[in-house]
Specification:
- Helices cover 29% and strands 43% of the residues.
- The protein is α+β, with helices and mostly antiparallel strands.
- Strands 5, 6, 7, 8 and 9 form a 5-stranded antiparallel sheet that branches. A 4-stranded antiparallel sheet has the order 2-3-1-4.
- Strand 2 and strand 3 form a beta hairpin.
- The chain is elongated, with a radius of gyration of 18 Å.
- It starts with a strand and ends with a strand.
Amino acid sequence: MRHTIVALMEDKPGVLNRVANLFRRRGFNIDSLAVGHSETPGISRMTVVVTGDDRTLEQVAKQLHKLVNVTKVFDLDGANVSRELALVKVHATPANRSEVIGLANIFRSNIVDVSPESLIIEITGTEDKVDSLLELLRPYGVQELTRTGILALARG
């Protein structure tokens, strides 16, 4: 089962490295990781998606609480809003460009760069939505791909 965990931590050099080392030492696999500034100055918000049972989730939370630079840890498996951003450079010749643009429009994504042989598509949405567009773009030739990892906030 996948779990979304949020950790608020001090925005200082080396903190992310300590957290990553914790996951490595304990053998937890990170499915997704996103870190950025939070609403509080000096505090970063890290969203981690891990796969494991409830015991795994409990161990991750306990280990994160032990780190001095981590101020709060909570599970977001209840009602939440989650999104992911991806940039995809796809091969698009004049012959198939309209098909690729049509797919991008169906997924409400944006064309952010155009060249004679490629397009860069920006898509934001759930992980399934991003995966679905990528699956449809693969036959055209995905040249490059970057994804942010899941960002999530609790509802209410």
